[in-house]
Every structure is written in structure tokens, then in C-alpha cells.
Amino acid sequence: MTMFLNALLFLGYILIYPGFLFCFVVGMLLSGIDRKLVARMQKRVGPPICQPFYDFFKLLGKETIIPAAANRTVYLLAPLLGLAALVTIQVLIPVFRFTAFSGVADVIVILYLLLIPALATIMGAAASGSPYAGVGLSREMVTILACELPLLMVLLAVAKSVGNAMGTGLCFSLSEIAAYQSAHGSLLLRPSMIPAALAFLLVIPGETGSHPFDAAEAETEICEGMLAEYSGKPLGVYKLSHAIKLLTMTSLFVALFLGGLGTGVTALDALIHVALCAAVTVVTVSFVHAITARLRIEQIFKFYWTVVAGLALISLVLAWFGL
Amino acid sequence: MSMVSFQHFPIYAILVLFLGAFVVTAFGRKGTVRHVVAMLCASISLLLLLALIKPVMIQGETIAYWLGNRVPAGGYAIGIALEVDALNLFFGLLVTVALFVSTVYSLSYMTHDEHQAEYYTLLMLLGGGVLGMVLSGDIFNMYVMVEILTFSAVALTAFRSKVYGALEAAFKYLVVGSIGSTCILAGVIMLYAQAHTLNFAQLSALIPGNMTPATKVAFALLLVGFATKSFIVPFHPLAADAHGAAPASISVLISGVLTKSGLYGIIRIVYMLFGTMQLGAIQLLLVFVGSVSMFVCVTMALAQHDFKRLLAFHSISQIGYVLTAVGLATGLGLSAGLYHAMNHTLFKGLLFLAAGAVLHETGTTDLDKLGGLSKRMPHTTALFLIGAFSISGIPPFNGFASKWMIYQATYQKAVESGNIGYVLVTVVALVTSTLTLASFVKVTQSVFFGQLPKELENVREVPVGMRIAMGIFAVLCVLTGVFPNLVTAYLTEPAARAALNALGYIDSMMGAGYAESVMVTPPAPVAVSFAASGVWAPVNWLLLLCVALLGITVVASLGKYESVSERSGERVAAKYQLFYGGEANWDAQVGGGDLFWGFKHNWRHYFDFMHALHSGIVNDYAQWALVALALAVVVLQIVL
Question: CA nearest B401 in A: which residue?
């Protein structure tokens, strides 16, 4: 009986909360809020908040065309695998004191798990055979390279800072970082962690491929690059993945830097978490989107490896000296 | 009783390979005979070493085998000895597994070549040489085996002598490889002059407390000598040429096994013979050389246009990881390094075999001329992708497990030693890993996906034998990635403990109490922790992924997909053709070499510098070797 209940709980975690259903609804909401706000900032009316849902269900009903030149298996499997990988990351990220699955992966593993959805998109794009996808995947890979360095340094700084405070020297476990913050207050309150938090905020638009770091998609030059040949259901799945990635990256920020704001009540915490994710989305994605123009790929790379990595480095050095 | 019979297994494993080499030459004019002999020798040698896992790895026995039963007398070990503890056995297993798979692959891969009997002779000699080198218990026989493996590797590099550049590559390898072998011989002579023995265990007891300027020079000579065998910076250009020319089945051995023999030599001499691994300066030296190797070679790989040259540079980049981890001198680091060494043999073997498969069917390994092979060679593509994901460290494949341990180990080392320089090592290791991913995305895109060139329309999948060989490596890549706990518990941790237990090694060879009688301070077994500070449970994660994937697939597969099967010559409907912005269908692929322009542009000065440096002239590379030797001599005189 207990085993049955455990299995049920396991499925519930993955498929409902904080897994698939939660990701689906909140990710789409974040995407809708983003679109609406960008439109308002640009003095347009903008789509309704629920537009991403309508788009998604419309795409599901559309014809799926597999190009003759494509490798069918990879072309169809890539979007599904990417989505599944994103959902598994989401269930590993703590929502304040609640962690669905602790003891599976630490922050370094999360850094690598984040590569899987991007890699799946790249593989799908390569398999489609389109030259636009070729350009797109090249730019996507360089964007990943650009973001990886600052992101790693942020994680190392956090690991060291929490480890210092706990007396263990370093702490890579996300649930321990969350537990520490709920006992001692958010990391963002620590002056030494502010540059790292800023760096992380700047990484979010890069990782989610939004303006001005969306050279890989660049609708106006390379026709959405990697998605150029996708249509119907697989395209819908990609759009969903993109929305969920917004949630994943912002959740990671909340878990790493704002973990002290929880109340201990699971349902209420979930609401606060979503609200914070929305706020982070507005600040890092919508606001930046509305006021900037697209950068070229080599500018993106340079920006991340100098400015953002520099910010992260400041925190890392400060944490190193125990501040 | 059982122990006695196990005693003979190591010598049989070596002998059967050398015997096989002669038998193939004598009776191998017929294809079946040489195939049977080669397979038999490789399998027997593999089985003999597999049988040793239980006594050596699990029960912790050490096999001391004296040829002709000339056991040490009067405190002096004169006889030729084989010594098998967990560390040797670990490397021995890598050798025999790689040799076995390479032989399986060769059976179908080499069918169109001439002089096959000679090929198998050299193959067996190479395998036997490396196996003898890692199992040898005295340093002179190590040198003899190094010569055998170097010369068979040189000959095999030039085996396809009609291929452009093969003889040149072999010549370069011969020159710099000989410098390395000479260094080892000179080091051995100097040690003998100082300690009057060649036995490894006895040297390990006599040398550490009595370092003289001469033994320091010997240390430098041996270090540089073994470094040339593992191709780490500054000896890396050789590997690129050699791999570019050698048959793929040989590249598997050169990259997977021969470089490991150099690493084995380095581990043995720094941890045991000279007992210097607790010195911060030696740790820094190894970590520095390792980090430089991993970064320089991954950037060199990114700039390559040839599949096999690209793999060759990655090979050294991965060796850099191993050396870095080994240089940390912590339990976790050593275990992680050995784990990565094993993984490297598996995934790089797989990748070289895939490159060989592409060469076998298309006749080229030029990234700019290939494309779209996934539709013609689906199995090779799938197997290649497993290898590519493994080397790029994508969870849950094996490269991730070991790299993750290396990140933990380097960062822990940074925290424990308070040296912020080690943080830089963590960062370099991770950036290198991402660059590795980038360059394999490049290979995937320009060889297996993208458009199929007209000339390659008739390409077919490779023979079953070659796919089986790749399949063995692929299965091992997945298994060692999904069950890291088993790998560390039964393979790498025993080996790491053996490397750290100099006293046990000396006593098992020279008799208990020998070390205490000659050493002022016998080395205490170092107490080390193998615990990582992070968490990674691949099986649980895979379970999560499968459930999520299943759920999503069920939802997604409701409904129908429209598609058309591609038939050559038949005109497909416009909607199934690729979108070219309204232009007529023309070839518009991004060339493999230009794929990461955004990255290369920012690093253009670095790349220009590197291109200027790698002149391709053997005189330059020989000079690098001599400069490295001079530096090593000076540095070691100062720090020891």
C-alpha cells in the first residue's frame, strides 16, 4: 500500500507539481506576461496573456511536415527529449523548503542538464537539413559557450559562500542551499553575492534566447534559425520548451538567491515562487527586450565573457575571502 | 592453491600476445588463419586479466611474479619481475579491452589492405608491448617494452604508406618518440648508477629518502620520457599527424592505450618511485601541464577540418583532464582521473572507430566534403552520437560522471589548500568541456547531418563486424556512465588506493619489513577521502527522464504526422523540400570550419598565434621536446 502511494506521489511530482502540468501552465503564463508587457512598453496593445496557450493548441492541430531531406527519427525525437529533460530539471529545483527529489543532482549537474534541451534543439535542427538551421545552431552553440562561463562562476561563488557559512568549505547541493537560506535569510542580502546575482540575471535572457541575445533565432535574418523547418506538433513542443525554460531559469535564480522568502506552507510557497519568477522574468527578459536591439553573435560572446563573467568573478573572489 | 595459479596469469597474458605476433607472421598467409590467431590471442589475454579482477581488485591481493623464480636475496632484487596490483591491473584491463575491440574491428576494416599478416603482427606487438609495460615490475623492462610499443606504433602509423602524409607522420613520431625513449633509458641508467638496482619496488624504497642532484635529473628525464608517450603538451602535434594517417583500429590503440601507458608511467614515478606527490610544487606542475594540455588541445581541435585530426587533439585534451586530476594528489582526484582515463579509452575508441567507418565507406575524413550520412549510415550515426555525448560530458554518459568528479575534486582541492589557482582549473575544465561539445556539434552537423553531397549518394552502412566493435564500446560507455558507484567501488578506488600505498607495494615485492629496514621514514599509507561534496544519481535521474518522456510522448503522439519517404530521382512535392528563402534549391551549407565564427573571431589573436606555432616541421617539435626537458631538469632541481 505504501509502495503504491509512493509510486503515485512520484508520478504526481513528475506529471503534475512541480513537474509537467505546473511547468506547462506557469511557463506559458510567464511567456504570455512577457509578450504583453513588451507590447505595452512599446506602446502596442499586445496579445492576451493566454495567447501562448492558444498558439500551442493551434500548433497541435496543424499538419506536421517532415522535410524530405530530414532524418525523421532525430527530427521528431529531439523536441520531445528536450522537453522531458527540462521537466526533470524543474522537479529537481527546490521551491523554498520543498524539494520534490533531493539527492539526485547538485548544481554542477544542473548546469549540465541545462545543456540537454539546448543540445536536443541543436540535434533536431541539424537533422532537419536546413541551411538556416545550420547557421542557427552555430550561433546557439556559441551562445551556450558564452553563457556557460559566467553561469559556472556564479554557481561556484554560491557554493563557496554557503559552504563558508555552513563550515563545510563548499556546498553544491541545491536542497542544502535552499535549507540554509530559509534558516539564515536570502543570499541576495549578502553584499558579496549581489554581483553574482546580477550576472545570473544577465545570463537568463541569454539562456532563454530572448532579446538582445537571440542571434540564434533572429527571425528577420535567418527565419528563426533552428526552427526554420519545424511545423505543427514538434514546433508546438519547441514553443512550450522555450516557455518552460523561462520558468526553469527564473526558478533557479529564486532558489539560489531568494530562498529566504518562503513561508513553510507548500501551497503558499508555490504562489510566492511563481510571483517571484514572474517578477524576474519581467525585469530580465521583458524589460531588456523592450529597450535593446539584437546583438551580433561575436558581440554576445564578448559581452558574456567580459562584463558578465567579470561580475561573477567579483563575487567568487569575495566569497573566497569569506565575505 | 588458487593464488598460485593466479600468479601465472599476467605473464601468460603478455606471452600469448607476443607468441601470436610470431605465429601470425609464420602462418598468417591465409585470411582465416590470421583472423583466428589474432582473435584468439586478444581474447585469451583479455580473459586472463578479467579473471584477476576478483583477487586483485576486490580481495586486494598483489601478485609478485619473479621470472625463473629468482626471488630477491640478500636485500637485492636481481631477477625480472612482474607486479600486478590494482593500479597495473586497471591499466592492463584498458589495454586488453581496447586491443580486443580493435582486433574485432580490424577483421572487416582491414580487408582491402595489403600485408595483413604484418599488420596483425604489429598489432599484437603493440598490444603486448603496452601490456608488458604496465605489468612490469622493474624499470628496465618498462623501457624495453616502451621501445617495442613505440616502434610498432611508428610502423603502424606508416602502415598505409600510400596515404598522403603517412610516412611523414611516422617520421615525426619516430624522431620525437625516440627522444622520449632515450630520456627514459638515460633516466634508468642514472637511477641504476645511484641505487644499483632496477627493481621498481626496491627503487621506491631506496630513492625517496636519498634524493641527490643526479636522481632529480633522472626524475626529470623519466617524466619527460613518459610525457612524450602520452603526447601531452608540448608533444601534442605528433598525435595529430599520427592519428590522421594511421588506420582507425590503430588510432584506438594509440589514443586509448599507448597514451595511457605514458600516464601510468607518470603516476608510478611521481607517486611511488620518487614519492614526491605530497609536495605542493609537484602537484602544481602536473596540474598546470594538464590544464594547459586540455585547453590548448581543445582549441586546436576546434580549428581542425579533418575528422581524425580533430579526434587526435581531443584525445590529448582528455589526457589533460586525467593528468590534472591525478596531479591533485587527493583520493577523489586520483580516482576521478583514473575513471576519466578509462572513459577516454572507451569513448575515444568509439569515436575513432566511427571515423574509420566513415573513411571506409566514403574514402575521406575531410569535414568540408562530408554531410548527411545519417540517412545512409544510421547505426554508425547513433553509435557516433553516443561517443560524442560521452566525450562532451552529457549526462548520463560516462564522460559526465568522471568530469563531474574532476570538477568536485579540483574545487575541493582549492578549498582545502586555500589556493585560488585551483578554482581557475575548475573553470578551465568546464569551459574545455563546453568547447568539446561545440566541436562535436560541428562534426555531427558536417558529417552526419546537413545535406548529402552528390558523390556520396551510394554510401552504405559498414559491415556488421565493425558495428559490433563500435557497439561494445558504446554499451560500455553507457554502463560506466549510469553506474558510477560500481565503477568507483570495484575499479578506480582500488587502483587509487594502490597508487597511494607505496609501503604495501614495496613489502609485497621485497618481503615484509624491507621498507622499514632501509627507509628512515617508511611511507605511511595516505589516508584519503573519496567522498565528493555534490550529489549525482544517474539511475534516479534516468527514471525521472523516462517517465517524463513517456508522458510527453503519449500526449504528443495523438494524431498523425505527414511525411514523405525520400526517393532519389523522384521529384518530391514542394512542401517537403527545404526552405531556401524562395531561391532555387542550391547548396548553401555552412562549412564545418566556419561553424563557430562567433567564438573564433573573439579569439582570433590566440588562433593566429597557435597556427604560427604549429609549423608542422619536425625540427621545431624536437626542439620543443628538448626545451621541455631542460625546463623539467631546472624546475625539479629547484623544487625538490
Answer: A109
A252 Cα to chain B: minimum distance (Å): 17
Residue B573: inside a domain: no
Longest CA–CA span in chain A (Å) reads: 59
What number is the average pLDDT over the span B595-618? 81
Residue among A24, A91, A138 with most chain B CBs within 10 A, to mutate: A138
Q: Does residue B587 fall inside a structural domain? A: no
Backbone phi, psi, residue B327, to 5°? -70, -15
Interchain pair B451, A129: CB under 8 A: yes
User: When comparing pLDDT for B529 and B311, which is higher?
Assistant: B311
Q: Which of A149-158, A261-270, B193-202, B320-329 has the lowest mean pLDDT?
A: A261-270
- Chain A, chain B: beta-carbon pairs less than 8 Å apart: 243
Give dist(CA B130, CA B227) in Å, integer: 15
Please give the model's pTM, rounded to 2 decimal places.
Answer: 0.91
Nearest by CB to residue A173, choosing from B372, B535, B537, is B535
Per residue, the 3-state secondary structure of B503-515, as one string, reads HHHHHHHHCCCHH
Look at residue B539 and tell me if it is in a domain.
no
A216 CA to chain B: closest CA distance, Å? 11
Distance CA B563, CA A276 (A): 43
Residues of B in contact with A307 (CB under 8 A): none
Cα B435 from Cα A67, distance rounded (Å): 30
Burial of B481 (0-12, 13-18, 19+ CB in 10 A): buried
To the nearest whole number, what is the mean pLDDT of chain A? 84
Residue B46 in contact with residue B16, Cβ under 8 Å? no
Search chain A and give the residue with CA nearest B445: A126
The pLDDT, as a whole number, for residue B1 is 40
CB A259 within 8 A of CB A181: yes
Residue B465 lies in domain: 2-169+198-267+281-507+592-639
Task: State how far residue B431 is from chain A, nearest Cα, in angstroms.
Answer: 6
What ipTM goes with this model?
0.89
- First-to-last alpha carbon distance for chain B, in angstroms, is 45
Alpha carbons B265 and B256: distance in angstroms, whole number: 15
Interface contact A60-B434, CB threshold 8 A = no
**Chain B residues 337-396 with a CB less than 8 Å from chain A:** 372, 374-375, 378, 381, 385, 389, 393-395
- Strands B63-66 and B81-84 turn out to be antiparallel
| Interchain proximity A223–B564, CB inside 8 Å | no
**Domain boundaries of chain A, sorted by first residue:** 22-320
Instruction: Count up the domains in chain B and report the number.
Output: 1
Residue A272 Cα, gap to closest chain B Cα (Å): 25
- Asked whether residue B518 is assigned to any structural domain, the reply reads no
How many other CB atoms are there within 10 angstroms of residue B277's CB atom? 22
